[in-house]
Amino acid sequence: MIKGVIFDLDGVITDTAKFHYIAWKNLASELGIEIDEKFNETLKGIPRLDSLIKILEYGGVRQKYSDTDIDSLADKKNEEYKLLLEELSKDDILPGIEEFIDELRSNNIKIGLASVSKNAPTILKKLELIEKIDFIADPSKVAKGKPAPDIFIEAARGIGLEIENTVGIEDAESGVKAMRACNMRSVGIGVEADLTLKGTSELSLEVISMLDK
């Protein structure tokens, strides 16, 4: 029985992918690397440092940068990203998400967040949703990012439930792999999962309850 729902953030609750893309593209250009939107898709759901390493490897310059360099470059990207986030508002919640969250709450279903973004609390405040989330897993406190299952396990722990009583919602293959790695039932938004939906507007308690059958 579903007692808790664990959301990814980007591409499920809101879409800040455009901001990530602008910030990564600008940083890559400074380093003499050109990336496009197709390459940016491969960064979906991947932690910041791993994304940067992927960009450096793509540009064939990984060996030029020390771990300290990489940390400072990742921080630089994040500062630009945070400036871009200032534009975010309640209007940027994806279709049907707030209604779905309200439906879950009215049925006493716990809500957790399993996002690799350290900016998740800031984003949820901008969207005026933070008070509706029972627990936000801290990505800096888990050993491995997606596709490892650690952050989903932590989110389930945070809402006080066994994995078998939870369902996770993702839009990235790495996230679905993470859920499968801990036997959490999965809903995919535009990505293959235990239950695959075309968009967030299709989400409802009745729809995800199909996973109980």
UniProtKB/TrEMBL annotation:
Its cofactor is Mg(2+). Its EC number is 5.4.2.6. The keyword Iron does not apply. Keywords: Carbohydrate metabolism, Isomerase, Magnesium, Metal-binding, Phosphoprotein. This is Beta-phosphoglucomutase. InterPro entries: B-phosphoglucomutase_hydrolase, Beta-PGM, Beta-PGM-like, HAD-like_sf, HAD-SF_hydro_IA, HAD_sf, PGP-like_dom2. Pfam families: Hydrolase. The active site is at D8, D10. The record marks S115, K146 as: Important for catalytic activity and assists the phosphoryl transfer reaction to Asp8 by balancing charge and orienting the reacting groups. The keyword Isomerase applies.
